[in-house]
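Intended use. Records like the one below are meant for learning the mapping from a protein sequence to its folded structure. Do not use them to infer anything beyond what is encoded.
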Amino acid sequence: MGTSAILSQIEAEARAGAGALDRLAQAAKALQVAVERDVEPAFNSPSTATAWRAAHRSGAPARIDSDPELQDFIRARIADHIFDQIIAALAAGFPPERRTSRSALSRW
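Structure written out for the chain above:
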């Protein structure tokens, strides 16, 4: 293989490498945009527990305060149902770790 053939092969490999680097740079930019859009707001938005501690409150925040879907469920029924009916509806529609008690509902 002659010198010019080797030089041509090197140039072709360099062009292919430059194209791969361009595609890699585009993928890195797309990843950065996705992280800024999806991940950073989750870390920057204060959680209920953070606000709870910032207010110098002891203990843990109430389950109802920490779960917007649970709040919406209760608010949709609070005017028309008694507490026992709401608790029964919660038991039917939510898993055990997301349910609340009648006394917690009363405090809330």
